[in-house]
């Protein structure tokens, strides 16, 4: 048998090598050709995408050039969105439009009232004559000069405020807020009045009125109504933030343009009205770029506007604009590689170098990616089909080889099973032929041997015939009522006669005798239980006790056979119910058997609508349990 196993193993290895030699070369060739096709497609996509990107870069260059040409007409009003025109003079810097900057380096100079005009009234105010001072301020508040009128209203409100006459103070501040073009201590009089009115509303607890006043003041403040320097702007902003309870919005572009104004003023003070204020090279200040100048006008563009231009002109491509020094104005840091398209400032005439980075997704790219995906899926499907077919074919070949090997082992085992009783019968027959005058006792023992071996051969032949009928679904069953306990008692009694001479004991425990009815084929169920008992004896080895129990279960009746023998490995507990399959220990220990017993038991139990269970642990024995539906009453 070992020789046949080695022969079968060698044939299996040779078959596997032949199978691989036939399948692997075509599969490798197919995969290689598919990869080559995908690589050619990738190269074509890269070339076409580079051409498209070059066209996009040229279009972006032309579009930016046209946008800058429009922006360069400094006399045009108003300035395009995202741009500010700065006009410089010895008095300071003016921004157009004014709402695109937060502050200017020098506040607009406004006319302020002379303090001497209020000296006598203030003397009365601070020396205890507040009412007389109030009359003096009221007279001055009617003066035709707006500077005098503004100064008088400010002091009039101060007197009312000290006396906590909030309504009178608010009235004076509101009159002061109507005066334009006048300064108080260097600040616009209307801004001073509105800030003071807010303070009074806060002090007097008029929260709703304060909210309305804050919103109106914030709108005018951010719209650039007052051109303040940075300290005055920050002071007003902090006061507004205190009233509104949150930070004041500061647009990044406006801060950038304010920084540009500061730089321009510093440069103007150093160089005066010098045409070197801006060299032919464009200057970059924070988030804004100075483009060019005309006389005293300078145009600045925000980087936010540049980002908008590049996004509009390149359909979402990753574009970067770089200064002459290589600094990135907008976009990601440029990458390197053949897919990058660069247009230098010297080639385009733009103030910047334009770089079109790889990474944008176009309709062409999507089309080619979809085609590559289809090619890849097709190649993968072919490879999977080839691999799956090869695997199924190999499994079928291995299964047939395994069946052939098992059948060969079965023939060998059955031959041995037949040979053993036949040899015994032949030996007894020869002894009886040699001596015709055998003693009656010896002759009866010979007859017993012949009878047992004849029954053994009959059971073996009947088992083979029954299994063949079961496999072909031609086994007839005669179902009739019977008591499972009585059937088990009959089988155990007959089985004891065979195994007790070999030292085995078979115990039977029936739960509630006479109350465990079944509807079953008595002969088939007897054969099934006999096979399970015979299997328990074979694998008991030195453990000689077999226990049989019959008990009621919720699903029906359970007939269990327990031994304390070798046990069954977990990985074999399902396979042992297949035909011709025997455990590894059976072959190693030389235990006799055909590999059909448990397969027959499984067939019979299923035919009765039941199931078979096995509980086993190596070295601790096994329990086989036949679960059969009880007869309905």
**Over the alpha carbons, how many angstroms does the gyration radius reach?**
54 Å
Assign the CATH topology of the domain at 477-628. Answer: Heat Shock Protein 90
- Helix amount: 55-70%
Query: What structural class do you assign from the helix and strand content?
Result: alpha+beta
The global form is elongated
Strand order of the largest sheet: 2-1-8-7-6
The total count of strands amounts to 19
CATH superfamily of the domain at 477-628: Histidine kinase-like ATPase, C-terminal domain
Question: What's the helix count?
Answer: 17
Q: Report the span from N to C terminus.
A: 53 Å
Return the CATH architecture of the domain at 477-628: 2-Layer Sandwich
Query: So what's the CATH class of the domain at 477-628?
Result: Alpha Beta
Low-confidence stretches: 1-8, 275-282
Oligomer: single chain
Mean pLDDT: 77
β-strand amount? 15-25%
Strand count, sense and barrel status of the largest sheet are: 5 strands, antiparallel
């Amino acid at each position: 048998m070992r020789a046949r196993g080695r022969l079968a193993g060698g044939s299996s290895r040779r078959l596997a090598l032949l199978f691989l030699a036939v399948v692997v070369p075509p599969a490798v060739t197919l995969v290689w050709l598919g990869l080559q096709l995908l690589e050619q497609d990738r190269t074509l996509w890269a070339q076409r995408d580079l051409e498209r990107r070059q066209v996009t870069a040229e279009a972006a260059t032309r579009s930016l050039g046209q946008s800058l040409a429009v922006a360069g007409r400094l006399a045009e009003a108003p300035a395009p969105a995202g741009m500010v025109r700065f006009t410089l003079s010895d008095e300071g810097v003016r921004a157009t439009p004014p709402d695109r900057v937060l502050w200017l380096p020098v506040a607009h100079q406004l006319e302020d009232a002379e303090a001497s005009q209020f000296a006598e009234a203030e003397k009365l105010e601070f020396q205890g004559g507040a009412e007389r001072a109030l009359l003096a301020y009221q007279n001055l508040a009617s003066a035709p000069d707006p500077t005098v009128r503004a100064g008088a209203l400010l002091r009039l409100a101060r007197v009312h405020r000290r006396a906590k006459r909030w309504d009178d103070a608010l009235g004076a501040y509101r009159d002061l807020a109507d005066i334009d073009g006048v300064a108080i201590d260097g600040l616009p009089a209307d801004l001073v009045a509105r800030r003071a009115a807010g303070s009074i509303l806060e002090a007097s607890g008029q929260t709703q009125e304060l909210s309305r006043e804050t919103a109106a003041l914030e709108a005018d403040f951010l719209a650039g109504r007052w051109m303040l320097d940075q300290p005055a702007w920050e002071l007003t902003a902090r006061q507004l933030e205190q009233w509104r309870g949150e930070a004041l919005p500061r647009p990044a572009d406006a801060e950038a343009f304010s920084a540009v104004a500061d730089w321009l003023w510093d440069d103007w003070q150093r160089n005066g009205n010098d045409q070197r204020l801006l060299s032919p090279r464009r200057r970059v200040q924070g988030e804004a770029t100075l483009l060019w100048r005309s006389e005293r006008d300078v145009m600045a563009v925000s980087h936010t506007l540049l980002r908008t231009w590049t996004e509009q002109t390149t359909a979402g491509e990753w574009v970067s604009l770089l200064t002459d020094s290589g600094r990135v104005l907008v976009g990601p840091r440029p990458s390197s590689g053949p897919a990058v398209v660069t247009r230098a400032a010297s080639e385009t005439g733009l103030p910047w170098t334009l770089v079109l980075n790889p990474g944008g997704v176009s309709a062409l790219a999507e089309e080619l990616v979809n085609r590559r995906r289809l090619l890849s899926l097709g190649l993968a499907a072919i490879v999977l089909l080839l691999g799956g077919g090869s695997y199924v074919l190999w499994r079928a070949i291995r299964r047939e080889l395994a069946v052939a090997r098992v059948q060969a082992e079965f023939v060998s085992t059955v031959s041995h099973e037949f040979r053993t009783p036949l040899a015994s019968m032949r030996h007894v027959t020869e002894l009886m032929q040699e001596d015709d005058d055998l003693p009656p006792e010896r002759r009866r023992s010979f007859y017993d041997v012949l009878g047992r071996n004849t029954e053994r051969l009959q059971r073996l032949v009947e088992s083979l015939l029954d299994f063949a009928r079961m496999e072909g679904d031609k086994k007839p069953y005669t179902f009739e009522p019977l008591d499972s306990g009585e059937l088990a008692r009959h089988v155990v009694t007959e089985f004891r006669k065979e195994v007790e001479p070999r030292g085995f004991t078979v115990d039977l425990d029936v739960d509630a005798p006479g109350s465990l009815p079944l509807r079953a084929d008595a002969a088939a169920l007897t054969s099934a239980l006999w096979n399970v008992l015979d299997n328990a004896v074979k694998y008991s080895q030195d453990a000689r006790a077999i226990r049989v129990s019959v008990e009621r279960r919720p699903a029906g009746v359970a007939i269990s056979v327990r031994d304390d023998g070798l046990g069954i490995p977990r990985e074999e507990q399902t396979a042992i119910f297949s035909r011709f399959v025997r455990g590894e220990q059976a072959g190693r220990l030389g235990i006799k058997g055909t590999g059909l017993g448990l397969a027959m038991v499984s067939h019979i139990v299923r035919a009765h609508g039941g199931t078979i269970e096995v509980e086993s642990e190596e070295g601790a024995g096994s329990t086989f349990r036949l679960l059969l539906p009880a007869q309905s009453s």
